[in-house]
Amino acid sequence: MALGFLAALSAHALPQEAAVPGGLALVRLGNGAARPQAWFGEKRVAVVRDDQGWVALVGLPLSLEPGVHPLRVASAGSSEETRPIRVAAKHYPLQRFTVPDHRKVEPPPEDMLRIAREQKRIDEIKALFRDEPDVDLAFRQPAAGRLTGRFGLRRIINGLERMPHAGIDVAAPVGTPVQAAGAGVVVETGDYFFNGNSVYIDHGQGLVTLYCHLDRIEVLPGEPVAAGQRIGLSGNTGRTSGPHLHWTVLLNGAAVDPRLFLPRTKR
Ligand SMILES: [Zn+2]
């Protein structure tokens, strides 16, 4: 009875597996008493428990080559081992669109210092690993609206090749309430050159969500947020082709398709 209750408490709704670039792999790590640790490349990865035991959640970057990649695993009482992750190829369609403010697409030299400073901060956030045993994995869509820009699209903006789309877009008029996808702690807020007014939420163990182009930010760094708590209003700031909410999910520093974390009916 007591055991069953504990198991129910610690069970996690795992995200959907998609072992492709821009997806995530689920690797079973046995049922030992202590939580194993695991690394993909240099990055430590999330390890959670469900009713069958420990599971590593491995974010696979969009830039990853298909093939077999090693996950390093350290479990209490045994030597470090390597587990293979088989990553299949995935074709992402090409998208062309126009951004009215061309300066956001081809920034002049005077913007480069700011962009470099912001990139450094983003890289710091991508390297976060807060040892939170109870990671909230069952996300909700952070704003009401139709999902428009799909994840992973290769992009030609104003005729220039740019980085692929590292999140999904929700069509939302300026002023639509934006909610935290899951429980966590706000780690960063600010006005970013490309992303506009942005909020980063750390959910623990290298799972971070990012909300971009906001009209208004209503939380502060260091503030804990509950799942579904309002964090601001959607807008049209930064590099946009019109009002929308851009939502990114980072897992061990890799942007992965946020729909993998939504209830199946939403995917
Ligand atoms: Zn977007």
What does this structure look like?
By secondary structure, this protein is mainly β. It has two domains: 2-87, Peptidoglycan hydrolase domains (Immunoglobulin-like, Sandwich); 94-266, Glucose Permease (Domain IIA) (Distorted Sandwich), CATH 2.70.70.10. The protein has two helices and 19 strands. It is globular. Residues 149, 165, 167, 169, 246 line the site of zinc ion.
Brief overview:
By secondary structure, this protein is mainly β. It has helices at 2-10, 109-126, and strands spanning 24-28, 37-40, 43-44, 46-50, 53-59, 67-74, 81-87, 94-97, 154-157, 160-162, 168-170, 177-179, 184-192, 196-204, 207-217, 224-225, 230-234, 245-251, 254-256. Strand 18 (245-251) and strand 19 form a beta hairpin.
Q: Which tags fit this structure?
A:
binds zinc ion; 10% helix; globular; disordered N terminus; mainly beta; four-stranded antiparallel β-sheet; 267 residues; nine-stranded antiparallel β-sheet; Glucose Permease (Domain IIA); Immunoglobulin-like
Determine the CATH superfamily of the largest domain: Glucose Permease (Domain IIA)
CATH topology of the largest domain: Glucose Permease (Domain IIA)
Which cofactors or ions or other ligands sit in this model?
zinc ion
Query: What form results from the Cα inertia axes?
Result: globular
Order of helices and strands: HEEEEEEEEHEEEEEEEEEEE
What top-tier CATH class of the largest domain fits best? Mainly Beta
Nearest-integer average pLDDT: 92
Report strand %: 35-45%
Task: Report the span from N to C terminus.
Answer: 35 Å
Radius of gyration: 19 Å
The count of β-strands is 19
Q: Helical percent range?
A: 10-25%
